[in-house]
Amino acid sequence: MSEEQAVPLGDAALDADQSKTDLEIHKLEAGDAAPRADNPSQLDGREALQPTRLYKRRWMIVLLFSSYSLCNSFQWIQYGIINNIFMKFYNVDAFTIDWMSMIYMLTYIPFIFPVTWLLDKKGLRVIALVATALNCAGTWIKVASVKPNLFAVTFLGQLCCSFAQVFILGMPSRIASVWFGSEEVSTACSIGVFGNQLGIAIGFLVPPMLVPNVDDMDELAHHISIMFYITAGVATLLFILVVCVFQERPKLPPTQAQATARSIPPEHYSYTASILRLLRNRPFNLLIVTYGLNVGCFYAVSTLLNRMIIERYPGEEVNAGRIGLTIVIAGMVGSLICGIWLDKTKTYKQTTLAVYFMSLVGMMVYAATLNLGHLWVVFITAGALGFFMTGYLPLGFEFAVELTYPESEGTSSGLLNCSAQVFGIIFTICQGKIMDRFGTLPGNIFLCVFLLIGAIMTGFIKSDLRRQKANLMAKAAGPADCHNGSLAAASIIEESKF
Questions:
Q1: Mean pLDDT of 173-182
Q2: CB-based contacts of 214: which residues, under 8 Å, 6+ apart?
Q3: CA–CA distance, 296 with 64 (Å, rounded to integer)
């Protein structure tokens, strides 16, 4: 595959008697490629800025990731959006079907820490292989569960897919940082999140179309079987593609920030110490809570959407799915716009705060219009809610990477998602109970209160953009002072230790 032109780094170079240590660092940062002894670019006694390069393969990597993320997230909501049909088929209650979605959240919480440790030790390719293998296995288990007395088997398949999600959810920011340049990293992260959102959108739209609400159990089993077989076929194809195509990282890093991060010797890195540094990072701790509040509300709305719509508009299962689709499609547009905006402006806190506030406004308007009796109004207000609430997802990831650089992107994203899963479970259970006892409007007001708290807390997050600082320091040094530029970028690492 052809590659794009390397990013110029100046003509300054190493002296012929460069030390062995400098050569080893050069080797590590250049993707373990052996340095040439006759390297013509030399500079008296000083260390050159590391070479960087953008590879066209990066687009294939992020699109493949988005595809298998899509396949996994589709299954998160495929039970909940037609919960009344699965309740009838398996003869279980609504709360049991709610757990088919909440199991994704519950599984994530205890397993995210071992998975992020594995990511740091083994890298992106191993994580991608495990994720697609688990997702593929879960889909085939579901194929074998299409009988009314086999709810335990279909739950096992969903559990397997929920394990796969642990290996997927926090990866967009890591892939973006490892493969993409500083002017496109937020857009790349948005594309990674885009796949997850598109999967949820398809999960809202397709199950009501493939599985109609019929009374004949044999016919219903046939429709469910078709849905499960299609999902299994797609998951199997994606697993094969990951085995054949997915690459760990580019040979040369895309940015000076990534080159500096690569230069940390493995023996100097401690996963436990990294977690402790993150937990001492006050701006990041605030972001953990605010991200969890926002995304937890989104999880609750998505899980309970069918119940909200059916309660006010009986028999509208298909339109419930279409409203969910509207929420996520609008959110996908919001994600891409926010990603492009961040790459252009680097206004991480301002954009995050604005989108958070608009999520609150969107939730209030959605809650106020849901009971008006006009579905077309619900489509409009749900779309506005989705544009901002779902569009917030990549903003949180990218803001976290900026606040925590040079810590692992997988670790920071994992902590954000862990918070989201905790709040998602709490909000889904609480809102479901409030809806059962008091109705849909009080349940949505419950979510509005916590979005207001999250918006206020977001305003107190200090905007310490460490990754941008590292890139700017390296660029400012330039070829005239390469050594100082490398040290300046590396100093960001030292600052993060305290």
A1: 80
A2: 220, 223
A3: 27
Say yes or no to pLDDT of 491 above 60.
no
Query: Can you tell me the distance from the alpha carbon of 36 to that of 130, in angstroms, rounded to the nearest whole number?
Result: 36
Orientation angle between helical segments 172-179 and 124-143, nearest 10 degrees: 140
> DSSP state, 436?
H
Identify the DSSP state of 37: T
42 φ, ψ to 5°? -135, 155
The rounded distance, in Å, linking the Cα atoms of 484 and 194 is 39
Q: What is the helix (H) or strand (E) element at residue 71, kind and residue range?
A: helix 57-77
Within 10 A of 30 (CB to CB), how many other CB atoms are there? 19
Tell me the HSE value of 255 on the side-chain side, using a 13 A CA sphere.
23
Contacts of 330 (CB under 8 A, 6+ apart): 383, 384, 385, 386, 387, 390
- Is residue 380 within 8 Å of 406, Cβ to Cβ? no
Selection from 448, 437, 432, 494 nearest residue 469 by Cα? 494
Picking from 145, 201, 173, 134, the residue whose alpha carbon sits closest to that of residue 287 is: 173
The per-residue pLDDT for range 128-151, each reduced to its tens digit, is: 999 999 999 999 999 999 999 999
The identity of residue 86, as a single letter, is F
Q: How far apart are CA 444 and CA 385, in angstroms?
A: 12
Torsions phi, psi for 148 (to 5 deg) = -60, -25
CA distances 172 to 120, 128, 312, 410, Å, are 15, 12, 37, 9
Percentages (nearest 5) of helix, strand, coil residues in the chain: 75, 0, 25
| pTM: predicted TM-score of the whole model, two decimal places | 0.66
Select the more confidently predicted residue: 7 or 469. Answer: 469
Residue 14: per-residue pLDDT:
34
Give the integer Cα–Cα distance in Å for 23 and 26. 5
